[in-house]
TrEMBL record:
Subunit (UniProt): Homooctamer; tetramer of dimers.
EC number, as in UniProt: 2.6.99.2
Stated name of the protein: Pyridoxine 5'-phosphate synthase
Site for Transition state stabilizer, residues: 154
Principal subcellular localization: cytoplasm
Superkingdom classification of source: Bacteria
Sites where the protein binds 3-amino-2-oxopropyl phosphate: 10, 21, 195, 216-217
Active site location: 46 (proton acceptor), 73 (proton acceptor), 194 (proton donor)
InterPro entries: Aldolase_TIM (IPR013785), PyrdxlP_synth_PdxJ (IPR004569), Pyridoxine-5'_phos_synth (IPR036130)
Enzyme class: transferase
Organism, as annotated: Azospirillum picis
Keywords: Cytoplasm, Pyridoxine biosynthesis, Transferase
Amino acid sequence: MSRQLRLGVNIDHVATVRNARGGAHPDPVRAARLAIEAGADGITAHLREDRRHIVDRDIDRLMAEIDRPLNLEMAATGEMLGIALRHKPHAACLVPEKRTEVTTEGGLDVLGQYDQLVRPVGELSAAGIRVSLFIDPEPAQLDAARRLGAPVVELHTGAYCDAVDPAERDAELARIVRAAAHAEAIGLECHAGHGLSYDTVGPVAAIPTIVELNIGHFLIGEAIFVGLTNSIARMRKAMERARSATPAGSGA
Ligand SMILES: CC(=O)[C@@H](O)[C@H](O)COP(=O)(O)O
Ligand SMILES: NCC(=O)COP(=O)(O)O
């Protein structure tokens, strides 16, 4: 039987629009409440070091005002670790950050940064925060995440979503399918996210060992045309359609 597939709605880019004028509208916390009413199982927010969208006050308010799990995306820095330990969100997802990047470019290099990650992963876990590592769909990165003791990985779906050539897209999807199977085999809970849209979500949602998708930019952009409730409801339907079409008990 394939497992329930959760949707985490990333509200970063509600804050992008708000910050464009430096005011308080549109309010990311209001968007989070609407997303939950529309069917989101959780809220994801990325507190970047440069605060280009989500700011500290947004995290304060999300922790105080929403009643669904908050997945705090953060760089593995001392500053962000202190903020996470103070708030104790349901989950923290460690993501790589470069100030010059437009958006997250690649997965966290768990293998290469293993020693630097021991402390943040250990301290977040000891505080009861579910740690997730945002990684490329590479077995070596999965094995390193397992060794580090992170219970969850989130597979970076950006290369699959950005692929223009059908053969390249198929190859990137195959990487994700293999990585999701490997995660299951070594006892890691498997999530996925980045760049997912109505057009790309189906094959990823059909992977039975993936239990959560984090989706943001596309949903917020689509909400400009159809409203957030409708964009989320349509994404949920696409996820459920793909998941229900997956043969029960099928391998990844
Ligand atoms: C890790 C990831 O893919 C996103 O959740 C991340 O938040 C992208 O960064 P921006 O939201 O700043 O584009
Ligand atoms: N970790 C992925 C996420 O939270 C949302 O990514 P995107 O849909 O905004 O690209």
